[in-house]
Every structure is written in structure tokens, then in C-alpha cells.
């Protein structure tokens, strides 16, 4: 059997470990051939590929980024996913002699995997995204690293904030789901966590900040980039569009900080963590999870379990139908937010 591996969407810590786990299992145990496509679907259509064997993946687990590169190039050249698009992928796969795909990515990538499988083009998904917003799995690899980086930033901001009696506001990633803000805020002891799922008013936020001041402390507010104030219909955006044609988010912290300062009289400073959350070496948790995911995907290919994704359920990696993983984002449920919100201020 010959399997093609490609990555799509934003990079996420642990992708190299997933590739290594899949290659070692597939090549060394099952006797498969593996081929990797550079920069995702761009490499697939451009003929830019590399063989993947033990030597190719040696020592890559602790590395950040991804050796194959990734991109937001769409697999459907006509942009519709119609019969012509699918036939183009089928024909190109035949030229490579590929029997199936391992697709490493988030919701969009796993949706593509489902479409391919439904069209008779075998595919298995490996779930990565720092946002942890993909269904069918308790955690995606990359999330733990992003949370750890954000929590460290909170620790550092707290000391400087306390020294100057300032309110510090930190913006982290999270377009539609606030998992990073929630978990990093809990880990770092932030007094306020603002996430896209649950708008809050500037009056309430200011009340929390003043409550912290009245206890003799300095506030640390963590906000996801997709957060909206009560009464606002739009998320804060920057110029331009992202690779999916959506407005670029970012800068909500620049809106919040002056509003907080104006209403509380407390000097307030804003920090945007940005792409630091994606970079650097993955945590041990992400390396292990990604490796196990790769192994499970290779085993699933041998068993013919196409149309599935290697999801973490409790402490087990299980192959779940792609239909369970895609179609809707996994957002923070109300009870999870409420249990933390009661401690704000």
C-alpha cells in the first residue's frame, strides 16, 4: 500500500510528531510506502513531494512547525468540490500510485477528508488545531502547547502588572471558540477570561477589575481574539482576509484596554500574543498525543478504516467517523464557562 501525507491550514505544534508516528508504524511495521506532499495541496497538484521513511522523520518529534510545510491552498481547484474537482484529485492520486491519504488538519481539512471518502477516494484524518475546536476528539494536538505558552505569558505579565499596579489585558487566539483563553486563564490565575461564545458588557468587565483593585491586587484579563462586547454584532478585525476568505481577526485588546482604563481609572496595558502561540517545540503532552494519533491512523489504513479520524476519547485514541468531527465547531459549553465565571473579579 502507498499512502500520501499532507498538512493543511495553520501550523500546529505536534505535526512533526504525528508524521513520525504514522511513518514509523506504516513503513516499519506494516511495510507501506509513504509519500509526503510539500505545502499541502499545492505540492499535491504541483508534483512537489518527498519520500517518507525512517531516515526522513529522524529526530523531528521535538521540532516546531512541520517539515512538509502547510498552506491554505484549496484541494478543489474549481472551488466547488464538484465531480470535476474530485476526478482531478482521483487522477492525480493515480499518477502517484496512492491508495489513500492521511490528512493532518482542522475542521476544514477533515471536512475535505469526509468529502473525498464519500467520493471513493480513501482518506483518514489526523486532528490538529491549537484552538481545540474540532469535534470527535477531547483534545487536538497543538492545543496544550498553545495553552502552556499563553499561561507563561500570563505569569510574566502578572509580575510587571503588580509592580506598577496596572491592569494587564492579554489577547490570545480563538476566532469562534475560547478554549485557549479559558484554559490558559485558569492555569495562570487570570481574574477575567473573555471568550467568543459568551459576550460580556464593558460595565461588567470594569466591575470585575475594580473588585480586584479593591482587594489590593492588579487585574489580569485574558481575551480571545473573537470576543465581542454585549451589543456588538461584529468581531474586531484587521485589514485583509485570511486564507479562507474570512476577515482577519485581531486587535480586540486594543479596544478593551482604553475602555477599561476610562471606566476604572486604572492604568491598563494591552498585549497581543499572536503567532507565538503556534511556534516553538511542542509540549510532551502534544508530542505523545500526536505520535499516538499517527500510529492509530496508520493502523486504521491497514484495517481499511477509511473515512475516520483518530480522536482522543478519555485516555484512548479511537477511530471516529469523520461525520462526528465535522459540520460544527466544538465550542466552550455554558456550564464550563459559568463555573469559571463565578470566580471572576
UniProtKB/TrEMBL annotation:
Mg(2+) binds at residue 107. Keywords: ATP-binding, Cytoplasm, Glycolysis, Kinase, Magnesium, Metal-binding, Nucleotide-binding, Transferase. The keyword Cell cycle does not apply. It catalyses: beta-D-fructose 6-phosphate + ATP = beta-D-fructose 1,6-bisphosphate + ADP + H(+). The active site is at residue 131. It is an enzyme of class 2 (transferase). Residues 2-300 form the Phosphofructokinase domain. ATP binds at residues 10, 72-73, 106-109. Homodimer or homotetramer. Catalyzes the phosphorylation of D-fructose 6-phosphate to fructose 1,6-bisphosphate by ATP, the first committing step of glycolysis. Belongs to the phosphofructokinase type A (PFKA) family. Mixed-substrate PFK group III subfamily. This is ATP-dependent 6-phosphofructokinase. It comes from Leucobacter allii.
